[in-house]
Amino acid sequence: xxxxxxxxxxxxxxxxxxxxxxxxxxxxxxxxxxxxxxxxxxxxxxxxxxxxxxxxxxxxxxxxxxxxxxxxxxxxxxxxxxxxxxxxxxxxxxxxxxxxxxxxxxxxxxxxxxxxxxxxxxxxxxxxxxxxxxxxxxxxxxxxxxxxxxxxxxxxxxxxxxxxxxxxxxxxxxxxxxxxxxxxxxxxxxxxxxxxxxxxxxxxxxxxxxxxxxxxxxxxxxxxxxxxxxxxxxxxxxxxxxxxxxxxxxxxxxxxxxxxxxxxxxxxxxxxxxxxxxxxxxxxxxxxxxxxxxxxxxxxxxxxxxxxx
Amino acid sequence: xxxxxxxxxxxxxxxxxxxxxxxxxxxxxxxxxxxxxxxxxxxxxxxxxxxxxxxxxxxxxxxxxxxxxxxxxxxxxxxxxxxxxxxxxxxxxxxxxxxxxxxxxxxxxxxxxxxxxxxxxxxxxxxxxxxxxxxxxxxxxxxxxxxxxxxxxxxxxxxxxxxxxxxxxxxxxxxxxxxxxxxxxxxxxxxxxxxxxxxxxxxxxxxxxxxxxxxxxxxxxxxxxxxxxxxxxxxxxxxxxxxxxxxxxxxxxxxxxxxxxxxxxxxx
Lengths: 309, 268
Hints:
The complex is a heterodimer.
Chain A: H1 3-11, H2 18-34, H3 40-67, H4 72-75, H5 90-98, H6 101-132, H7 138-150, H8 153-166, H9 173-177, H10 184-195, H11 199-207, H12 212-223, H13 225-241, H14 244-249, H15 258-267, H16 274-294, H17 296-306
Chain B: H1 2-11, H2 33-40, H3 42-74, H4 81-93, H5 96-106, H6 113-120, H7 135-160, H8 164-172, H9 177-188, H10 190-205, H11 209-214, H12 226-235, H13 239-266
C-alpha cells in the first residue's frame, strides 16, 4: 500500500475505519483489564459462554454439511445420527445431473458478477462526482441517495416489477441484473472514501491537462482499492443471496437462481427429499462462506458502518 | 429510487390488477378503498399481529445477545477472538433461504435434530413448525440465531470508538465492572444502540423468506407476515391492494424509525 492510500483512509470518517481497529482494539484494552487479577474467574465465565455460543452458532452448519452426505432414509432414522453411517455423494450427483443445478449456479454467478461489476464502476463514478466535482443539485442528489438507503426493498418491488414487465424483461437475465446495477449504498460508500483523497493530487493532474475521466480511471480508482473491495464483496453477497426479486422475475425454470430453485424445490416437488435439500443448501452456502472467509475484513468493515446486507 | 415510492403511493389508490400491467395509466382511481379493505381484512390483521410479535421479540433478542457477545469479545484477554467473531457473524452473510431449509429440517418432527436431542433426555418435543402455538416462536428463535452476529459487529465497532481514557478515569475512581458498564459503556453506546435498533427493525419488519420456506405462512396463518401477505396478494394479481399493504408497512417503518430517533436521543 502506498502512503497516499493510508493517509487517505486515515482521514475518511468512521466509515472505513471501523474494521481495521477491531484487530488491534483488543490489545488496546488488554493493558487496562489485564492488570487486575480479580477478573480471572469472570474471564473463565466469559470464555465458556463465548465458546458455548460459538458451538450453537456452528451446529446448523455442521449438521447441514454432514447430512448432505447421508441418504434420506438415514436422515429420517430415529434417533438422528451425526456422522453419516453410509456416506454417499448421491445427493450432489442428483442435484447436478438430474436436476438443473449447474444452470442455476450459472444464473446466480452471472447475475451476481454483473451486478457487482456495475456497482463497482457506476457507484465509484457517482461517488467521485459527489465528492470532488461541483455541479448544481449536488446536495439534493446526496439527500436522495441517503434517503433511498432508508427505503425498505419490499415497498419498491411491485412498481419495479411493473416497470420491468413493460420493458419485456421479465424472465430474462437483464431483468435480474439491470435494476441493481447501481445503488445508494455503494454511491455513498464511495463518496465517503473519495472525500478523503487529497485535492492536491487531482489538481496536479488537472494542471497537467488530464481530463476528468482520465483522472478518475488513472488516479482516483487505483487509490480506492479497500473501498472497492468492500463494495464489491458486499454487493456480490447480497445479490447471490437475494430471493424476492429473482422469485418474482424468474418465472421459468431456466432463469432460476440458486436460492429460488432451493426454495421452490424444498417447498414443492422435492419436499420429502430432505437429504437432497441439505446438499442444495450446501451448494448455496459454500461459495459465500469461502468468499466471506477470504474477504472478511472488507465485509465486516462495510457492515459495521451501514448494517445493510 | 424515489420513483418507486411515488408509484407505489399512487398505485395504492387504484384498482390496478395484473391485467393492467401494459396500460398502467388506464387504471381507475378508487380513493382510499384499498386502505379500507386492508384494515378490514382479517388476514391482514393476523399478519400485522404476527409481524408485531415477531419484531417485538426478535429485535430486543438479537440486540441483547449481540451486545453480550460483543462485550465478551471486547475483553482484551479473549483467545481465538477472530475465529469467534467469524463464527457468530457467519449466519448473517449466508442465504436466508438455505438457512431456513436447514432449520426446517432441524426443527422437523420426524427427523429433527432438536427433537432428537430432547428425546435423549426423555422429553417429547412438540411440532416446532407444525403447531400454531410454537411456529412463530421457532422462527423468532432462528431469526435471533441468524441476526445476532450483525448486532455484534455493529456493537464491536461502537465499543472500540469509546475513548480508553473514560475507562482509565473510571478505574481511578474505583468503579466496579458493573459500574464501568452502566456509567461508561452504556451511555457511550447510545448512538450505536439507536443505529442497531433502526437497522434491526427495518430489516425484521419485512420478514418474508423464513415463513415462505419453513411454514408457508401456516399453520393456520400463525406465521403469515405482512410482507408475505403483500407477496400473496401480488401473486394473485391484486396490484393496487399490494401497494396499499406495502405502503402501510412503509409508513410503520418510517414512523418507527423517527420514534426511535426521538426516544434514544432525548434521554441524557
